[in-house]
Amino acid sequence: MRPLARPGRTPALRLPLFAACVAAALGVAGCSDGASKAKEAPPQAEPIAVSVAPVTSVTVQRTADLVGSFFPNDEATVAAQLESRVVWYGPDMGDTVTKGEVILRLDDADLQAQLREVEARLVKARADDDRARDLRAAGVMSKTEAERMGTDAAVLTAQRDLLKVKLDRTIVRSPLDGSIAARTVSVGEIAQVGRPLYKIVQDEPLKFRTLIPERFASFLHLDQEIHVGIAAYPDKQFTGRITRINPTAEEINRSIMIEAEVLNTEKLIKPGFFGSGEIVYDRQSPALVVPAAAITTFAGVTKVFVVKGGKAEERIVRTGVATAGERREIAEGVHEGEEVAVTNLDRLENGAPVTTTTADPVASTGAPAGS
Questions:
Q1: Which of 71-75, 183-187, 213-217 has the lowest mean pLDDT?
Q2: How far is Cα 348 from Cα 264, in angstroms, rounded to an integer?
Q3: I need a labelling partner for 136 at 20 to 30 A (CA). Which of 112, 157, 236, 287 fits?
Q4: Global confidence as pTM
Q5: In angstroms, rounded to a whole number, what is the distance separating the alpha carbons of residues 136 and 133?
Q6: Rounded distance, CA 258 to CA 279, Å?
Q7: Distance between CA atoms of 123 and 16, rounded to whole angstroms?
């Protein structure tokens, strides 16, 4: 009969089997950890070939945007100065007139007749005054009677002069050089005193009025140059110079009204036109520029990739003016002398390894540009 094993002890035959199982389990675990570590290690990224260009310093021309309207340099509403019938008019809407040119005539027949009568009476009155002077000197005529003769001649002289003034007012002349904006009467109509007959505008040169934000107040001065365009001629730029600066600012929008004189020799601009353009406030302002190709914008974020130590460094930037040679100012985000990537930007990300070649050099001076 086989003796029973004692409780709590492992039979001798089972020990080798147990050790083998433990070793196998540990081996499997070790293999599993090694495979996991090998899987987690990222593959070495291949460097991305990019062309780079340096951040350079240039001088640019600073401008501020402006919008406004054109006004006549001068304008006049010509009105009747006496009541009479219109017998003739010359220029009409759109015609050009010169200062002093006859543009309308009123009926003067009654005034001419009155003038002839007064002149005849004046001749007699002057003859009577001469005789009275002689009689007074001879002591034949009293002083009072002689003075009455002289007074009659003076009154008739004044009446004659008044009639001549009225006759002159039957001839209506242009008070300035300009163009006819409106004619409001026709032949045969009775012109009442004060009734408008013509509206004349001086359209060469023109006034351009615009509001400038108060932050530019320190840059404004008389004779400062502006450039304005109009919708009718989008390819043309008109140059003007500031002639007036309002001494007060608009409280509602914190802006200053300025007025500039704009030449209009070709008569392309009409009073009342809307204009937009820019004002030059700094001609020699320093700026840092990079090739425009180095700048990317996505979802409202503008950035460049600065290459340092063989890696791409993403920089969020604020751009400024455009300059010659397809370059763009970087107002914030880079420093002079740094290099930015200009190719393969779609493959770059922050920290990506790169190999570099030099792009075409960027010149050290920039053409003036507006901000």
A1: 213-217
A2: 53
A3: 157
A4: 0.66
A5: 5
A6: 11
A7: 164
